[in-house]
Amino acid sequence: MTVEQIILLESERLILRQWQESDLEPFAALTSDPLVMQYFPAVLTRAESDALVKKLQNHITQHGWGFWAVELKATSECIGLVGMIHQNGDIPNAPFVEIGWRLSANHWRKGYTLEAARASLDFAFQTLGLNAVYAFTTLDNLPSIGVMEKLGMVNQQQDFNHPSLPVDHPMSRHCLYKIERDS
Ligand SMILES: CC(C)(COP(=O)(O)OP(=O)(O)OC[C@H]1O[C@@H](n2cnc3c(N)ncnc32)[C@H](O)[C@@H]1OP(=O)(O)O)[C@@H](O)C(=O)NCCC(=O)NCCS
Q1: What's the whole-number mean pLDDT along residues 101-124?
Q2: CB burial of residue 163 (10 Å; 0-12, 13-18, 19+)
Q3: What is the position in ligand 1's atom list of the atom closest to the CA of 80?
Q4: How far is it, in rounded angstroms, from Cα 158 to Cα 94?
Q5: Cβ(137) to ligand 1 under 6 A?
Q6: 15, 30, 97, 114: most buried, per Cβ within 10 A?
Q7: Neighbouring C-beta atoms of residue 109, cutoff 10 Å
Q8: pLDDT at 9
Q9: Is there a contact between 149 and 178 (Cβ–Cβ < 8 Å)?
Q10: Are 160 and 138 in contact (CB under 8 A)?
Q11: Is the CB of 134 under 6 A from ligand 1?
Q12: Is 113 in the pocket of ligand 1 (CB under 6 A)?
């Protein structure tokens, strides 16, 4: 199934849009960077990164929204992903809509993730009419937890072992955050 309208969001400095061919290279540079991927089990090969883009593209084609490509208006370059996906994994409270982010390291600490996440949440609550959006990350990922807290998301105190990691993996334990429409 495909939807008629592919959503594009615009904020002050950013455009959140569907993925395109020219994003593959900058996204592969980001997913092969050990610094960006330090809270993921491994960096991605070019083939794995391209396959991930295809998956993200398909979610947007199917639903109209998803983990969008983040384009910097000033330069038109793709600097990473921010957005939301349907999460059906074996995670507390799932199924739910999950918000997520991953930016190339040379664009960190400029407020881009907050800006893109706020645009995503406005869309989730005002257009999609969702009641809540969730986020989760491994317990050591303080930058990501910092974004969650700055957005006003609340720790649900429902830490869990990520279903796709061995229980004894150092990144297994995850925290779960939530933001409600009326918050
Ligand atoms: C997490 C990530 C997306 C944050 O991106 P960013 O664009 O630097 O975030 P912002 O500039 O919008 O920062 C927003 C707030 O988040 C918090 N934050 C961001 N980076 C932080 C860090 N390194 N340490 C602590 N808090 C941090 C701060 O509160 C920050 O506000 P401030 O700069 O005014 O203090 C980025 O670090 C990243 O891509 N990390 C690798 C991928 C990843 O782990 N993704 C999440 C998987 S769950």
Answers
A1: 98
A2: exposed
A3: 39
A4: 12
A5: yes
A6: 30
A7: 9
A8: 98
A9: no
A10: no
A11: no
A12: yes
pLDDT band at 2 (very low <50, low <70, confident <90, very high): low
The answer to whether the CB of 139 is under 6 A from ligand 1 is: no
User: Are 159 and 176 spatial neighbours (Cβ–Cβ below 8 Å)?
Assistant: yes
**CB half-sphere exposure, 168, CA atoms < 13 A:** 0
Tell me yes or no: is domain 9-180 CATH 3.90.180.10.
no
* Structural contact between residues 22 and 33, judged by C-beta atoms closer than 8 angstroms: no
Whether the Cβ atoms of residue 117 and residue 127 lie closer than 8 Å to each other: no
pTM over 0.90: yes
Tokens of 82: 């921010």
- Cα end-to-end distance, the chain, whole Å: 33
Q: Interhelix angle for 142-150 vs 112-122, to 10°?
A: 50
